[in-house]
C-alpha cells in the first residue's frame, strides 16, 4: 500500500456506543487485509479492560488487541495498545503504559497523565506506521462523549492528530442505530466531522430490502455512505474488553451429550478479569457452562471456577456477602472440584496480606489451600511453560499477589502449574492454561472422576482451530458484506474532501 509522509496508511473505527462492534470490525478488517497480502497491525490508543494478555517481550496489553494481531497474523506488541486502564473499583484504575504499570488514578487524577499519554499514543501509532503496510485503529467508547473530548486520545483526538479517516459502526440489534449514527456526527465539532467518512451497520437480522430506505435517508441527511451492513453472526465474539460483554450473545455455546454432561459454574465477581480463561471449556462437547453469583447457582455444578480478578480482597468480600464462601467450602470438604485461577487462586489461601491492591492488610482467605499470599508492589508479567498430567502447558501470568505454602506446611498439597492442589481443589496463577488441549482433557477427566460424573472429554477438540475459525468468519464478514474497494480508498486517500457539516453541532471548534 502507498506510504505517505506519516508512514503506512491507517484508519480509525469508532462506535456509536461501547460494545457496538468496534473490536469485531477491526478484527475482521485485519483478517481480510492479511488475506490480501497486506502486513497490517491493530492499534488501540487507550483501552479500559480487565481482559489482558502478556506479549512475548513481557508487556501487558488488552486481549482484544492480541486477538486482532492474531487475525492479522502478527505477534502482538506493546505499541498496539500503549495505554491500558485496569479498573480496581468504580473510581480508580491501574494505569499501564507500554505494557508496564505506572500508577493508580481516579477519573480526576487521570487528567494529570493525559499529556504524557497523548504523546505515548501518537508515538506508538507512528512506530506501527513505520513497521507495517497498514494500521487499523480502534476507538474507545463513543467519539460523541463530548464531555471527554478535550482530553481524548483514542477517538477524534487521535484522528485529528494523525489525520485518520473514521468509520462509525452502530449496533442495529440494540435499536435506534440511525439516530445514534446521525447524532454522533451532529455532536462533533466541524473539524472532527470532516474526518467521519462513513458508517457500518452491525448485527443486522432480517431482509436487507427493509433496511434500504433507512440507509438512503442516512446518506441524504449526512452526506456519507454506509460502507457495510454486517449480518448477525452467532459466535462472533472475540477476546473482548470487559464483563459488560458477558451477555447472552457471548454465553458459551453448550453442546450437551446425552448422559455425559459436565456442569461448570464460573463465579461472576464484580471485578472479574481474564474471563477468556473459560472460553476453552466452552468449546468442549458436553460441558454445560454458566456464570454464577449465588450459592444456589453453584450447588449442582460439577466444577466451580473462581476466575481472575483485579480486586482480590474486595471480590473475596463480595463472595462472603453472598454466602458463596460457605457453598464453595462445603463443596471442597465433600471432595467436589474447585478451580481457582490467579485472583481466584489467591482467595483459596489460608491468609492474604495486601498493602498494595486494596491496602486492607491481613485478610483471611477461604482456607481451601495451605497457602499464604503476599501482594508485592511490582507486578509479575510472564509467559511460563511447564507440564501437568504428563502434558506440556503454556500460559501467562499477570499478578501482584505471590503464593507460598503457609509456614512451610504441605498439608497434603502437591504442585500444580506453579500453584498447588489439595484433593479436589486446584489453584494456579497461570491464565490460558485451559487452552492447551491435551492438558485440558486430562484435567476435565480428573474433575469428572472427582465429581463422580460419567463424562469423557472429546479426543479431537482443538481450541486453536476453533479460535482461527472465528477469526476467519470475521474476515468473511468484511469480505462479503462491506464495500472493500471503498475501504481501500479510505486507507490510500483518507477522508474525502468537502464532507458536509451537520448542523447544529452545538460544540465550539477546538
TrEMBL record:
CobQ/CobB/MinD/ParA nucleotide binding domain boundaries: 12-234
Catalytic residues (positions): 342 (nucleophile), 431
Keywords: Cobalamin biosynthesis, Glutamine amidotransferase
Classification via InterPro entries: Class_I_gatase-like, CobQ/CobB/MinD/ParA_Nub-bd_dom, CobQ_GATase1, CobQ_N, CobQ_synth, GATase_3, P-loop_NTPase
Endoplasmic reticulum found in the keyword field: no
Gene Ontology molecular function, alphabetical: ABC-type vitamin B12 transporter activity; catalytic activity
Transmembrane segments: none
Pathways per UniProt: Cofactor biosynthesis; adenosylcobalamin biosynthesis
GO biological process, one term: cobalamin biosynthetic process
Domain CobB/CobQ-like glutamine amidotransferase, residue spans: 263-438
Domain of life: Bacteria
Family: Belongs to the CobB/CobQ family. CobQ subfamily.
PANTHER family in the record: COBYRIC ACID SYNTHASE, DETHIOBIOTIN SYNTHETASE
NCBIfam families reported in the protein's UniProt record: cobQ, PRK00784.1
Function in brief: Catalyzes amidations at positions B, D, E, and G on adenosylcobyrinic A,C-diamide. NH(2) groups are provided by glutamine, and one molecule of ATP is hydrogenolyzed for each amidation.
UniProt protein name: Cobyric acid synthase
Organism annotation: Streptomonospora alba
Lineage start: Bacteria, Bacillati, Actinomycetota, Actinomycetes, Streptosporangiales
Amino acid at each position: 500500500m502507498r506510504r505517505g509522509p506519516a508512514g503506512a496508511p491507517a484508519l480509525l473505527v469508532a462506535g456509536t456506543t461501547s460494545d457496538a462492534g468496534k473490536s469485531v470490525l477491526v478484527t475482521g478488517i485485519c483478517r481480510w487485509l492479511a488475506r490480501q497480502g497486506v502486513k497490517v497491525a491493530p492499534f488501540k490508543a487507550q483501552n479500559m479492560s480487565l481482559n489482558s494478555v502478556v506479549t512475548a517481550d513481557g508487556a501487558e496489553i488488552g486481549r482484544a488487541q492480541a486477538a486482532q494481531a492474531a487475525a492479522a497474523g502478527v505477534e502482538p506488541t506493546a505499541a498496539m495498545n500503549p495505554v491500558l486502564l485496569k479498573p480496581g473499583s468504580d473510581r480508580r484504575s491501574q494505569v499501564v503504559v507500554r505494557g508496564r504499570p505506572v500508577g493508580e488514578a481516579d477519573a480526576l487524577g487521570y487528567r494529570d497523565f493525559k499529556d504524557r499519554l497523548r504523546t505515548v499514543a501518537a508515538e506508538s501509532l507512528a512506530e506501527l506506521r513505520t513497521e507495517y503496510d497498514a494500521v487499523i485503529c480502534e476507538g474507545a467508547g463513543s467519539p460523541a462523549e463530548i464531555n471527554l473530548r478535550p482530553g481524548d486520545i483514542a477517538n477524534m483526538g487521535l484522528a485529528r492528530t494523525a489525520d485518520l479517516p473514521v468509520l462509525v459502526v452502530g449496533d442495529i440489534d440494540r435499536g435506534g442505530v440511525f439516530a445514534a449514527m446521525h447524532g454522533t456526527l451532529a455532536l462533533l465539532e466541524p473539524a472532527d466531522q470532516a474526518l467521519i467518512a462513513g458508517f457500518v451497520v452491525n448485527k443486522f437480522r432480517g431482509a436487507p430490502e427493509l433496511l434500504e430506505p433507512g440507509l438512503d435517508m442516512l446518506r441524504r441527511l449526512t452526506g456519507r455512505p454506509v460502507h457495510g451492513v454486517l449480518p448477525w453472526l452467532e459466535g462472533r465474539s472475540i477476546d473482548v474488553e470487559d464483563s459488560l460483554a458477558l451477555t447472552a450473545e457471548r454465553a458459551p455455546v453448550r453442546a450437551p451429550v446425552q448422559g455425559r454432561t459436565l456442569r461448570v459454574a464460573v463465579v461472576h465477581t464484580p471485578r472479574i478479569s481474564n474471563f477468556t480463561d473459560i472460553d476453552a471449556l466452552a468449546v468442549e462437547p458436553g460441558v454445560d457452562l454458566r456464570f454464577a453469583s449465588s450459592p444456589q447457582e453453584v450447588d449442582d455444578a460439577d466444577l466451580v471456577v473462581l476466575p481472575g480478578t483485579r480486586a482480590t480482597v474486595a471480590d473475596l468480600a463480595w463472595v462472603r456477602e453472598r454466602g458463596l464462601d460457605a457453598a464453595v467450602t462445603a463443596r471442597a470438604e465433600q471432595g467436589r472440584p474447585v478451580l481457582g485461577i490467579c485472583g481466584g487462586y489467591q482467595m483459596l489461601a489460608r491468609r492474604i496480606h495486601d498493602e498494595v491492591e486494596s491496602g486492607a492488610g491481613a485478610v483471611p482467605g477461604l482456607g481451601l489451600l495451605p497457602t499464604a499470599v503476599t501482594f508485592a508492589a511490582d507486578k509479575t508479567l510472564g509467559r511460563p511453560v511447564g507440564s501437568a498430567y504428563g502434558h506440556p502447558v503454556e500460559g501467562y501470568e499477570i499478578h501482584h499477589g505471590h503464593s507460598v505454602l503457609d509456614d512451610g506446611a504441605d498439608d497434603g498439597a502437591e504442585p500444580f502449574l506453579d500453584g498447588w492442589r489439595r484433593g479436589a481443589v486446584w489453584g494456579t496463577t497461570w491464565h490460558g492454561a485451559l487452552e492447551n488441549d491435551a492438558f485440558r482433557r486430562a484435567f476435565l477427566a480428573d474433575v469428572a472422576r472427582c465429581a463422580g460424573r460419567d463424562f469423557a472429554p472429546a479426543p479431537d477438540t482443538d481450541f486453536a482451530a476453533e479460535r482461527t475459525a472465528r477469526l476467519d468468519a470475521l474476515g468473511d464478514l468484511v469480505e462479503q458484506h462491506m464495500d472493500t474497494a471503498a475501504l481501500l480508498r479510505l486507507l490510500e486517500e483518507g477522508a474525502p474532501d468537502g464532507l458536509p457539516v451537520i448542523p447544529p453541532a452545538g460544540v465550539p471548534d477546538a
